Amino acid sequence: MPVEDGEWPKEGEVLMCTVKKVEKFGAFLTLDEYGGKEGFIHISEVSPNWVKNIRDFFKEGRKVVAKVTRVDLSKQHIDMSLKRTTEQQKRYKVQQWKQRQKSTKLLELASKKVGKTPEQAKTEVVDKLLSEYPDLYAGFEEVVVGGKEVLAKRGIAKDWIEALYPIIVSTIELHKVEIEGYVSLQCFEPNGVEVIRGALSELTKPTDGEKESKIAVQIIGPPRYRVTVEAEDYKTAESILQKRIGMVESYLGKFDHTFAFSRPSK
Predict the structure, then answer these.
(1) How far does Cα 89 stand from its chain's mean position?
(2) Bridge partner residues of 260 (DSSP)
(3) What's the pLDDT at 210?
(4) At what angle do helices 158-171 and 87-114 cross, to 10 degrees?
(5) What is the pLDDT of residue 174?
(6) Given 83, 108, 129, which residue is the final one in a domain?
């Protein structure tokens, strides 16, 4: 759900924005998730390559995903960057934004069925779900899996449940997403081959506490390997990947080795 109107974004946040105005020196953006506050991207922060025409990247009214690089509260100014936003971050934010829009629409339909106002919907449904789930869509996904009982356990009234449930199960689809990275690994011990096998097994072995996911390792050509993670959303997949990379680094700590992890070039 949108943040409170008085809040400001933090440096490093990746946000969905709407292009408000394009100038030769940069673009002004409306921050959709922060009550319409305005951010600015200087032309030097548009692309790592030379920008001949800034309008190749921005057009008034279009949605863009950008990273907050500096917040000056004294001047109420927000600097942002397009080139510092990774493709992974862009995909995740677009997915999150679409889910938020779908959740809001779904709640509006249910509100009309029960004859409740948006304020009542927030108190009687949204706040109760957000006390348990990171966002409304995550709660609705849980309803698809667990049924009406998920809503009842959160203390949501029966009239809301009867209105929400059929809309949720007919609207919310559970999808998987996939991310990838590359591992470069060498070991200089006498049993180096066994050590490398052990390190790679750290990437794929089951661990407790992870949601359902699929992890695979493909040999590109020693010492380079491709790692893919399939999970329910980009945030979960990213968390799993980073955890596994940490496990590999920990495993290799006692051996003479070289190790590097990189993202696919875009």
Answers:
(1) 6
(2) 184
(3) 63
(4) 140
(5) 77
(6) 83
Q: Give me 63's structure tokens.
A: 């949605």
Task: Decide if 1 is inside a domain.
Answer: no
Is residue 227 in a domain?
yes
Which structure tokens are listed for 72?
């000056």
Residue 153 has φ and ψ, to the nearest 5°, of: -65, -25
d(CA 203, CA 240): 9
Q: What is the DSSP string of the chain?
A: -PPPTT----TT-EEEEEEEEEETTEEEEEETTTTT-EEEEEGGGT-SS--S-GGGT--TT-EEEEEEEEEETTTTEEEEESTTS-HHHHHHHHHHHHHHHHHHHHHHHHHHHHT--HHHHIIIIIHHHHTTSSSHHHHHHHHHHH-HHHHHHTT--HHHHHHHHHHHHHH-----EEEEEEEEEEE-STTHHHHHHHHHHHHHS--TTPPS-EEEEEEEETTEEEEEEEESSHHHHHHHHHHHHHHHHHHHTTS-EEEEEEPPP-
If pLDDT is split at 50, 70 and 90, which confidence band does 212 have?
A: low
Which residues, including other chains, have CB under 8 Å from residue 153's CB and lie 6 or more apart?
Answer: none
User: Residue written as tokens 């809040």?
Assistant: 7
Looking at the structure of the chain, the number of domains it has is 3
